[in-house]
Amino acid sequence: MTYVSEIDWLQTTEEQRKILYIATRAVADACDTSVEEIMDAALGRKVLMGTDYISTFRRGKIRRSYAKLIHAWISENHAANASTIAPSLFTWQHTDAWGDYLKDYAIQGTLRIARFDKSMNLVQRPRRQPKPEETLRLGEEFCFHLDSDIDGYAVAFQRYKGKTHPLPLGLNDEPSIKINLGEQFLPIDETGRPEVLSETEDAGHHQFIICIADDCSRLPTQDLPPSCERVVAIHVTQVKFVT
């Protein structure tokens, strides 16, 4: 992730610093933290701020040098949220928003690869201790085994060479599907049986992602990556496809 700061913070107006406070408050609310904690992280706990520094910040009267450090910290750690809240202050050039989010919030070990037993047309249950990366041959049939700690709605994606692509889970290529608490195979066909997936062209390392939320409106899309302001459980698994 990269960010661009075109603002000379040592020359900013009170109005610009008021907007910075609004953005800081919004990021804090979205990420279950506080303005005070963000300021501590950006400035360091040894900085002397006075007795009513939050009010000073709210009124846009915080020191310009402090505003510069707060802006830089938010840009580095919460650029996606901040650019949505205060685009006049935060210009975000993201090269891999999905990757940045998954690095911090992905749940490992709950999404696994299940193979099909061709002789009996059954799904082989995945091992309890999954490998860090499964290996499948191009064209080999598989599906997902998900152990979810919530019920709700799910969408899936496949990441390959830094790009994220939607992977329909529902019937008739619908993107989302209703899922249940606990273990289940995905995707499923109209009879409720696991549906066959396979990769036939692209060898190499792939990452599969299933995102779960209690409301469809919270689910991410290819162009709208997940963010900490929308509560979504992100389950991932890695697969290497070989010839």
Tell me about the largest β-sheet.
Answer: 7 strands, mixed
Query: The CATH topology of the largest domain is what?
Result: Immunoglobulin-like
Tell me the domain tally.
Answer: 2
Distance between the termini: 33 Å
**Count of individual helical segments:** 6
Characterization of the model:
The chain is α+β, with helices and mostly antiparallel strands and 243 residues long. It has two domains: 2-95, no CATH class; 107-242, Immunoglobulin-like (Sandwich). Helix content is 26%, strand content 30%. It is built from six helices and 13 strands. It has helices at residues 14-30, 35-43, 53-58, 64-77, 79-85, 97-105; strands at 2-4, 91-93, 107-108, 111-117, 122-124, 134-137, 142-148, 152-160, 163-167, 176-179, 182-186, 204-213, 233-242. Strands 3, 6, 8, 9, 10, 12 and 13 form a seven-stranded mixed beta sheet that branches. A four-stranded antiparallel beta sheet has the order 5-4-7-11, with no helix packed on it. Strands 1-2 form a two-stranded antiparallel sheet. A hairpin with a 2-residue loop joins β8 (152-160) and β9 (163-167). α1 packs parallel to α4, α2 packs across α4 (64-77) and α4 (64-77) crosses α5. The chain is elongated, with a radius of gyration of 22 Å. The mean pLDDT is 85.
